[in-house]
User: What shape does this take?
Amino acid sequence: MIMLNLTRSAFLRSALLGLCTAGLLTACGGGGQDDNVWSVGTEPAFPPFESVGEGDELVGFDIDLMRAVAEKAGKTVEFQSLPFDGLIPALQGGSIDAAISGMTITEEREKTIDFSDPYFDAGLAIAVAEGTTDVTSLDDLEGKRIAVQIGTTGAEAAASVADAKVSTFDSAPLALQELANGNVDAVVNDAPVTLYAIATGNIPGITVVGELLTEENYGIALPQNSENLEAVNTGLAAIKADGTYDALYEKWFGTAPLAQ
Ligand code: ARG
Assistant: This one.
């Protein structure tokens, strides 16, 4: 009887291990289960960098870029959708190996996580309702209602505006929709994403005003002292050198990248 129990639990253990390897049990945790798979977190409502496609699969510039970088390192990628403000905690807790999410490299974030070399130049822009004439800078938003995505550099910029009423949303499209609905006066968000939402007609009746508020660089985020940092940077350099980066840029932005 005891023998049988032992055998059974040994069997269960190896069966569970098998499922982990097959990637069927999410409870196994992300990082480090399978050496050939990188578990990568993303907040997938940020087109054209990441969004959910027609068949529920993730699509976007970041998604393609991450897969291409991983391939150079002989890895495959398994994506995990997470809230944007949950990505850094997940990296710190070790449940993901990396995060790609249009994430800006900031000094503040570098205190708790590491970043790859920059892979995209972006910056914040102010969006307002079409026809708005009194807003061209952050100062003009004093005392006004601003919508932002939680945990973002846009949220941080909005927090610096005197007397502004800032409302936070789980995703950038939700913040932009709030503007389209007339419930706020402005959205502070990454320019490429706001411009894409306007260009695709996804969010009607809004426009971008003024100059970029910031110059920001996106990086792939990794846990501090991750053993994968070097492979990620080598992969990035390789896809820039062999034309893959330019092809992906063209695919998602319709133009060649500006000289970097
Ligand atoms: N670049 C901004 C930041 O790092 C916004 C990124 C939001 N990304 C996303 N997938 N929702 O704070």
The pocket of arginine is lined by residues 43, 46, 50, 84, 101-104, 149, 152-153, 172, 190 (CB under 6 Å). Residues 2-21 form the longest helix (20 residues). The radius of gyration is 21 Å.
